[in-house]
Design goal:
alpha+beta, 2 domains, 4-stranded antiparallel sheet
Length: 266
C-alpha cells in the first residue's frame, strides 16, 4: 500500500515507539466503501484512481490508501491527515469532486480517530519511506542521499523516526565526528512540511541527545531553533564554521572536527 508521499508500506508496519505529545493530533480514518450493485462498482473502478491521486496531492494528506478487497463490491480505506483542518479541506474538495458527486449512494462504514506520533529507531522496512520523506521535507534529494550514504558506510550511529500508524513523518540521524573526544553530528533532521512547527523536530532532537549520552553533538542549522534544545554557538575548526555551527556539550575551543565522509561526497 502507498502513502501520500508515494512510498510503499508493508501490511505489518512497525507501530511501536514512545509517544510524542502534540497540541493538535493527527486524524486517521479506517473503514470500507460498500457497493450494492454492479453500477456502483463500475463507478468506483472508474473514479477512485483519480480521487486517490488528488487526495494524495493535498498538502495535509499523509496517507490515502483505498484498495478493492477480495469481495469486489467492497473497498478498504485508510486515511491519515495532518490535523482536523487538513481533513476538513479534504472533505470539502471531495464533496465537490466528480467522485463525491457520483458516489453518494455508496455505503460508507468508517471509523475516525486521533493519532499521536510515536518515536522509535528506524528499521530496514523504513528505508524507502525515509528516502521519500527527506526528499519531500527538503524539496531536493540531497539529504536522502546523505542518509543512504551514512547507512551504507556504517556511519549511521543513531537513526530515529517519528511515525503515525507506521507512516514516517519525521526523522533525525547522528553520525560519528572526528574530534578531541568521542562526538557526534546531528544531520539530517527532517519533518514532513504539513507537520512542521508542531514540536516533532524538537522531540526527535531531544531523543537523539538522550541516545548520545555524554558525547558532544554538533549540528548546522537555525540558531534559534536549536537554542531551544540546548545548543550554543560552536567555536570549532570546520569547513562549516560560522553562526550556524552549534554544539550541545563541549569540545575544546578552536579544536578541529571532521564529519563522516558522506558529508563531503559530491
Amino acid at each position: 500500500m502507498s502513502c501520500a508521499c508515494g512510498h510503499h508500506h508493508p501490511a505489518q508496519a512497525d507501530v511501536s515507539g514512545r509517544p510524542v505529545p502534540l497540541a493538535r493530533p493527527l486524524v486517521a480514518l479506517h473503514g470500507r466503501l460498500i457497493c450494492t450493485d454492479m453500477s456502483q462498482m463500475l463507478t468506483a473502478l472508474d473514479l477512485l484512481p483519480d480521487h486517490r491521486a488528488l487526495s494524495r496531492a493535498e498538502p495535509g494528506c499523509l496517507r490515502f490508501d483505498v484498495e478493492q478487497s477480495e469481495d469486489p463490491m467492497v473497498w478498504t480505506l485508510t486515511e491519515l491527515f495532518a490535523d482536523d483542518a487538513a481533513f476538513a479541506t479534504h472533505q470539502t474538495r471531495t464533496t465537490a469532486s466528480p467522485w463525491g458527486q457520483a458516489s453518494r449512494a455508496l455505503t460508507r462504514d468508517f471509523h475516525r480517530h486521533e493519532v499521536r506520533p510515536l518515536i522509535r529507531p528506524e528499521a530496514p522496512g523504513d528505508h524507502k519511506a525515509l528516502d521519500r520523506l527527506l526528499t519531500i521535507a527538503f524539496g531536493r534529494p540531497d539529504e536522502a542521499r546523505l542518509l543512504r550514504r551514512l547507512r551504507a558506510e556504517g556511519d549511521l550511529a543513531v537513526s530515529l523516526l517519528a511515525h503515525a500508524e507506521g507512516v514516517p513523518i519525521a526523522h533525525v540521524a547522528l553520525s560519528p565526528l572526528q574530534a578531541e573526544r568521542p562526538a557526534l553530528a546531528l544531520a539530517p533532521l527532517a519533518v514532513h512540511p504539513a507537520l512542521q512547527r508542531r514540536g516533532l523536530g524538537r522531540a526527535l532532537t531531544a531523543a537523539a541527545l538522550a541516545a548520545a549520552g555524554d558525547r558532544p553533538v554538533v549540528t548546522l542549522g537555525d540558531p534559534e531553533l536549536y537554542a531551544g534544545c540546548g545548543f550554543v554557538p560552536a567555536d570549532l575548526a570546520s569547513p562549516w564554521s560560522g553562526p550556524a555551527l552549534q554544539i550541545h556539550g563541549a569540545l575544546p575551543p578552536g579544536s578541529r572536527i571532521t564529519h563522516a565522509p558522506a558529508f563531503h561526497a559530491p
